[in-house]
Design a protein that fits this description.
The chain has 741 residues and is an alpha+beta fold. It has helices at residues 3-25, 33-98, 101-173, 176-229, 236-247, 251-261, 263-271, 289-310, 320-335, 354-364, 391-407, 416-422, 470-519, 521-594, 596-660, 664-669, 691-696, 715-723, 725-740; strands at 317-318, 368-373, 377-378, 382-383, 425-427, 430-433, 436-442, 448-454, 673-679, 682-688. Helix 2 (33-98) packs antiparallel against helix 15. The relative contact order is 0.19.
Amino acid sequence: MNKKKMIRLTALVGVATATGVVAEANQAHAATTTTTETTNQTTNASVESTQAAVDAAQSTFDTAQTSVDSAQANVTSASNNVTSASATLSSAIANKEAATSENIASATSAVSSQAVVVASASQAVSEQAGVVSAAASVQASAQAEATSASASLSSSSANVASATSALSAAEAALTSDQSTAANNLSAAESAASSASAAVSSDQAAVDNAQAAVASAQAIVDAVAEVQSSDVINMSVAYITALKNYLANPSSANAAALQEVAKGADYVKELQQKFKSDASLDVVVDPSDPTVQEALSVYAVNLINHLRNQYGLTTAFGASANANVAAIDFVKKYYDDEDWNIFGTTGSDGQGHNKNGLDAYADQLNTSIAEDAGSGLTTWVNGKATMATTTLHNLLYAVYSDIATMLFDDGGTNNWSHAQSIFEDGTILGTDGFNNVYLGVAFDKYGYAHYELYNATEGNHLGNNAYSLDVQTAAQALLTNAQASLASAKASLQRMTTNLMVAKAAVVAAQNQLAALENSSANDLVAVTKARTQLVSAETSYQTALATYKQKEEALKKAGDNLAAAQASLEAAQATLATAKAKLAELEETVANLTNADQLLAAAQAAYEQAVANLTTATGNLGAAQVDLAKAESQLALAEDTAEQAKVRAAIAAQVDQQLNGSTANDRQSAGQDATSLKTNGRALTATVATASAAKQKQGANQGRLPQTGNDDQEASTMALVGLGMLGLTTGLYGYKKKITE
């Protein structure tokens, strides 16, 4: 039943009952308080009675619902049983059709064959079990031996610890004075060794400084003569042809210049004029600042002499800053990048590092031009290494390179080296070379680099300028070498004195130790004995360790063998289980074929029984559903009755409250009042007598109103209900709205 609909019906019944009570109240007298209480008790008892009926109906409904659920479950189970029985019956029919004598014979033969397979697999399992048992025995024996070896190793380790402790105690027994003396001797010997090494080092420094002085003296003696004699003089014809070519680099002017220059033959002629002096054959470092100064001054003097012949009055300069920049550039963009400008033959190299030149020009914020020559790798005198090069090699390299730039620079270079020497304000068509300083550097391949910088106040490349008087530069080299020699000799003298002091300390420490050793001979014997015992204990330990490792390896091998045997046994057992399962399957097939008639009959009977059970379950479900419908109807009726009782009880309670709250004067002065009862959208109007009028007629008309409660309810009770309707009009409407929403 629809719960909400049932509640609305109950409300309407309650209002109708209230209307009847009001109508009867028009003829009744006012009731006493005692009569009102009796009415309330009666209506409350009715509410309790109807609620008990509702509870009983609800219990009956719940029981019926449980029966329906159980019957539904039985129907579902029975339906599943029918499906299963149908499948079994179909299988039995198929089995019956396959149960021919040929199939039975074939299946029986397969069973016999599989029985042989099972027997063989069983035998294999038995044999492998024996192998596992033997392997387990070997593993147990190996475990016992490994345990014994471990115990022996622990014992040997304890002996080593004990011997070590004994040695420590014996060594501690030596006097602290002896230890101190030994330490003093060790420290003295170490100091003497260091002093001796320092003396040797300083002696080598003195020797080197003396060699440097001799070398510098040779340079001083020879470089002036070399500078004055090693000049390159150009013919007037060459100068004229070069000027014509630089002014107009036509092919005709180039050919004329090439003809006058005489090519490589003239270069060789000039190279042979280089002053060779034995005093220059001293090994030097090309990156040494004094050597750098001599080379750059030598190169600038050669170039400026040529520029003077050419008719130029502006000269190139040389400075320490320009040399440092040249060395830094060559290291960064040639040595570090493995950039071989000429290669191994002079024609297979990488050429100028133009990207490096651009980057370095940006770094210094100036213009840079680079000339490069064969340097130490000349094709006239052969190759000299950087480690063994001499001053002669370096000066000859510069002389030969500049000569080659003048007279052997044709072909694809288009006399660009000569152009870089003889231009003024520009180099190779690039402006900004108004104050040129030259830096000379050799790369790790032995090739010479001549870096031409435009020096400005901003880049400081002209700072620390060298004097172009080569004699002054050579004398500075000699002065520096002599100062280094004096410093080295002073250091050698200090180290020699330190060595003498250190040797005396060693003698004193040795004497002290010898004296103490004579008085501690017994302690030394104890130490020796303890050391011998420790060596013996360590030997025993190593033997026990070797045995332990051997037994552990044997145990591991035995364990591996046992694991392998167990794995083989498990595999044989799995094979046997598979064979047995297949045999059981074949035996079942034979049994099914042999008993096909019986199996079919049983399946048919089971199917019929399942169908019958389903029919019974379906009938039970229908009966349970009928009982559930009856219980639901009874529950709805009981709930309607209970709602009516609640409405009557509410009305009685309101009347009781109204009567108990009124005074006599109120009742006498009260007139008639009308109340509208709203039900289902319609208004009911009832006229109620005043209390004074009812009192005048009290006792005259004591009749009974229609009964709505138990049989003992008094008519005066219903009259009192009617008297309370005026006050209940608004309350009843509100109550009705609450229970119908």
